[in-house]
Model the fold of this input.
Amino acid sequence: MIDFLANFSAQLRRRWLYGMISMTITLGLIMGTPRPAPAIPIIELLFRGIQLIQLSNMSDSQEVSLGSRINQQLTRSELKLYSDRAVTEYVNQIGQKLVPQSDRPNIPYVFQVVDMDAVNAFATMGGYVYVTKGLMKTADNEAQLASVIGHEIGHIAARHAVEQMRQKALEAGLASAAGLDRNTAVNIGVELAINRPNSRQAEFEADQKGLVNLERVGYAPSAMVAFMEKLQSQRSVPTFLSTHPATGDRIEALNQEIDPATANSGTGLDTAAYRSKISSIR
Ligand SMILES: [Zn+2]
Done:
């Protein structure tokens, strides 16, 4: 009996030793060739409590919850939201009017005003749209503001932020076959929201979607072009133009889509009414 056990444990030890040797050889092979480090097995990541996200196949609810986490981090550490309830509610009303006529009406949307004088607007993912109070002050009327909001909804509808995140994660070698760690995804999302311009192609697509959305709701389509032209003519280049490249070409593309006969028909062109809505913005 004792003999048997001793023999058994010797066998185990030997197997363990062989295991170690073969692992060392495998590691040597991996280290010797310029291959990426082996991905951490998914089981191990699960044990560590890390939630993985599949960027190429993200469900709506995953995207919304990721957007919410990105929003939390953005508003906690990067952006100050504008505290005026009436102004925020006004922007939200315009947004909620656009959503049902957008290409992606089936997720919840949150529209927020950023307390910043720079003229800018951006969207993350999962329904989170931001406009600065500087942009609101620069717009001449509600239709111009709505054109920007519609454009940002267009980015969300086309899932541009998800695609940008996927590209960024791949470039940086952060995603494994199993997916991307959720906390890393949130950090990338925050960085993209603040620093990374969209591609020309994404801009054109968001413009097209925004324009259609604007028209469906009944706003005058000319407002979208008018606002871009206004930004272009400003003495200091607004941030919005650096985060939204190719303005000249975008204006040209939009003008081809807008029928001159009905360009100004629609609502939202009343400047005085708009100014009174945003009069509390300092
Ligand atoms: Zn854009």
